[in-house]
Amino acid sequence: SLATAGAMRVAGLLLAWALLGAAASQQCQPAGPGGVLRFSDRHAEIRVPALHRVPSPLDPLYGLVRSCLDLIQQNPLPTELLRTALNDPGSVRTSQVVQYELGYVVCAAVALLFTVAVPVAGMCFCYCRSRRRCGGRLRAHRRSLGCRRRCLLACLSFTSLVILVSVTCALVTSQRVKAQMEPGLGAVPSTLRTLRQHLANVPQGVQMVVDKFEVPRKQIISDLGGLSRSVGLSIHAQLKAVTYEALADLQDRAGDLQTSLHHLQIVHRTARALAAARAELEPALRERRRRVVALLDDPRCTSCASVLGRAQGLQLGADYGKVPSVEKVLKALAGLPRSDFAEMIRQGNGTFNSIPELAVERMAQLIQDLRGDLARTAEKVQSIADGFPLPDYTRPVSEALGKAERRSQPYLREAERFERYRWIAGTVLCSIILLIVACNVTGMALGAYGLSKREDPSDYECRGEAGAKFLLVGVGLAFLFSWLLILLVFATFLVGGNIQTLVCRNWVNQEIYKFIDTPGNLPPSMNLTRQLNLRRDSNLSSAYRECKSGAGLWEVLQLDSSYDLDEHLRAPQYTADFQKRLGDFTAALGDVRLLRSEGRQDLETFARSGVDEVDYGRFQEEMKNPVVQSSLPGLARNLEGLQKMQRNSTVAGRLAAEARALWHMQNSTVQSQEALVAKLGESIQFLSRLAPHLKERVRRTLATTASVEARLPLQAQQILRQ
């Protein structure tokens, strides 16, 4: 009975394991450095329920039953006998069946012997009892009689206890078998229906997966919405450093040109002014020296000899007529700058900063075309669901499952009726056994009580007599119904034992699958490989193993050879037009002109003008010399000091007059020349610092500007494609 219940419970799950071991859809894992698209989890919504027997304290008893069955039936799966029985039932020989069922034949012989022997023994006992030859007579009290009664009481008590425990186990086991048979029988059509529903939902599942293309499509449309401006901003952000650096460098060179031209003009004017002032100062200074020397040589001049040497050294110093002329350089730079560098830089900066707006304008048609390609891609993806061949393979399986469900209904009803009758018969017989135990217990209790109340144990006592009658009733019931119980036990043992040893045991070791997969074992009407639409080179064993290891229907049905799934799921065939349009796209974002031709000519002329060829060291050497060798203020102060020392008023007056003349020459002529020399020094210092690096800086500026102008469109196009 236990084996029968287990077999019926797992029978409904066989096809579930064979077909849907891994029916749950798997989650796609997108890769890549970009953002991850989130798809909703699409696992199978229809689940095949798994039935499990709850462990109980009777598990050791079940193990004992299985051990007994393994001992009784030690033969392997009778493949030859099953092949003959399935293909040609009329040719099955009884000797083959008896040979395979030899253990059960022995059990049947024992059961038959018990069935015959027990009623015969019961009738013999009744006959003897009626002849008063089997007890019922009063015996003389002897010491051995009490010992015999106690021994019989102990044996009967032990026997009743064993019967009580056994019948309790039988009742509990029968009830649990019934509780497991009901869901097991219901699981067969339920599982088959669930499998058919799952197979029917496969096309819907494929469509749901295809519908998930809406996730990347919406993301792409969202990205395309701000793509053009985003691309423009990306181009601007990646190129602004080199562009702004080139514009700043160009602005510096324009400043160098303007400042150099200004300082060259100062040098030219100042050098000419200093040369003219020197020529004008020379006769006046010579005359002043002659008069001062003559005055100091006058014998009337007291203490004048100490200043005479200083007066004799009164002569001109720096001669700016000897410095190099910059007139040639000024002639080369005449008319420069011919272009407005400030406006040119402003326009270049504005053009570069307008790249985001230009990208939006130039990419508008591309965005529209990409959206059209995306719509066509969605149609191609939909073609996957439209041309998916899985329903062509699952339809025969679904039909086979429907046929199996219809054909299983009569057998399931018969099994249910058999189980109901078995449970009723078992409950009734177990109740009778309980009644027998109750009669035994009552009889022993009354007998013991009656014996305890008699003064003479050999006297007759009604309570003892009643106990004896209860014991006789128990014996009679045992003789009447025990053979029925043994027949019920044998029937359930025969059916359940064969299911356990023939089906369950060979199912666990997969001998059944090998038998099914062997060609010729099953008749054409029972060819499961063909009914389940498996390929000829596949079998039920391999399908079962694949499903149990986690494979899906695609691998189990081996559809790769008839439908190249990898080819249909290869993304480039759906995105080729999209990628080609992106790859072929060229956006003329406009020429960013940082330096026009006239500006370039101005800088080239500036570099060739000879600013770096002027000997600014000569200027610096002349500027080290003073305008007048001797200090006019110092000599004037010396004359003023000598005036105070003179006793001759005429000499004193002349010394005072000469001192005033020297102060006038210093303030009117020499100071103005010294101011020009200081101004000249500032210009010479700037030009001397600029000149050595002028050509290199101009060359680098022109090369950088040209490189940026040439690379800017190419880099912008490359960034746009990326």
UniProtKB/TrEMBL annotation:
Location(s), subcellular: Cell projection, Microvillus membrane
Cellular component, GO annotation: apical plasma membrane; cell surface; cilium; microvillus membrane; prominosome
One Pfam entry name: Prominin
Signal peptide range in chain numbering: 1-25
Major location (coarse): membrane
TM region(s), chain numbering: 102-130, 151-173, 423-449, 470-495
Domain of life per record: Eukaryota
Molecular-function GO term, any one: cholesterol binding
InterPro entries cross-referenced by the UniProt entry: Prominin
Keyword entries, A-Z: Glycoprotein, Membrane, Signal, Transmembrane, Transmembrane helix
Membrane topology according to the record: Multi-pass membrane protein
Family in the record: Belongs to the prominin family.
PANTHER family in UniProt: PROMININ PROM PROTEIN, PROMININ-2
Name under which the protein is recorded: PROM2 protein
Originating species: Prunella fulvescens
Gene label: Prom2_0
